[in-house]
Amino acid sequence: MIKREIIYTKTKSKVNCVNYSFGLHIPDEKNGYAFALSLFENNTIELYFFHGKNNGVLSDKFYADISKKQDIQSITLSKMFRLAVNTIAYMKCFPECVKDGVPKISFPRGEDRSDNNVNFQNF
Questions:
Q1: In angstroms, rounded to a whole number, what is the distance separating the alpha carbons of residues 118 and 110?
Q2: How many domains does the chain have?
Q3: Cα dihedral 80, 86, 91, 96 sign
Q4: Under DSSP, is residue 62 helix (H, G, I), strand (E, B) or coil?
Q5: Within a domain: residue 19?
């Protein structure tokens, strides 16, 4: 968690926010997830995310609208928002389970694994 002051150059205004930037690797998935979530002092949330071909920005107000829709894009965006918020909640509740950095590979590369498919054990 990083606290910072955000300066909006177009409106010449300042606002304080707390920023969470983190990445997730899920075993056996080709692409990882990258998130930057900002909690602003007016209680709004802004999420920047990247996962494979899916990337973008999403606010809590926009999430409230798309969470009611059933098209594939809305479902994907809703899942990204929930994954980011739930991951932060998990990290806050169980900080002892969160490790900084990239986990070490627990066994040598075998014939059955590609460069994009690496498995990790708990450490």
A1: 10
A2: 1
A3: negative
A4: helix
A5: yes
